[in-house]
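Action item from last week, closing it out:
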Amino acid sequence: MSEEKKDCGCKNKKEKPVQNKENIEKQAGKPGALSMMKSFAISMASRGLKNNKVPKPEKQLRVLSCFGNENTGGELPPCEYLRESTTEGKYYCGGCGCGDRKGTWLVADGDEYSKLDYPRLNCPLQMPGFTNYQPSTPDEAEEPVTRRYFIENISYDELQKVSVTTPETPPEIQKMLDKSNEKQKEE
């Protein structure tokens, strides 16, 4: 009697993840309503009664993960899921399913609370700086390196260039995003 091995369906396999557009789209696919509500509740609870915010270095990683660093002379473009809001000068994540609303803008005005301020916040791509961050695997260091690997290996000096103290989208980032939007419209 031969025993046939059946796939248990668990995620405890030792296969290397493939970093390609199809895999990224699966990760950032439309999450289920229950999953979104749970994630939102955890983020809101982390804010607490005193409007707690994520520490500056962590927010810098989040801004770098979302906006890239081309604006400061770096080579990391914005995340492919960064979307321009219908409200001028605002941006939101197009991968998490939260949509374009005041509470989902990545950067807010003045002392307003932005999405990137929440102490606990998940990223659909599990990037550095976010609660659900997953470290890169060795294959992500091979050319072309992945965003995650690039951000993990960025120098401290480069990270310090990431502006998180300005209330609006920093002018350098705005120029870079405008340029990127123009290129997309030309295509």
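Closing note: Residues 171-186 form the longest helix (16 residues).
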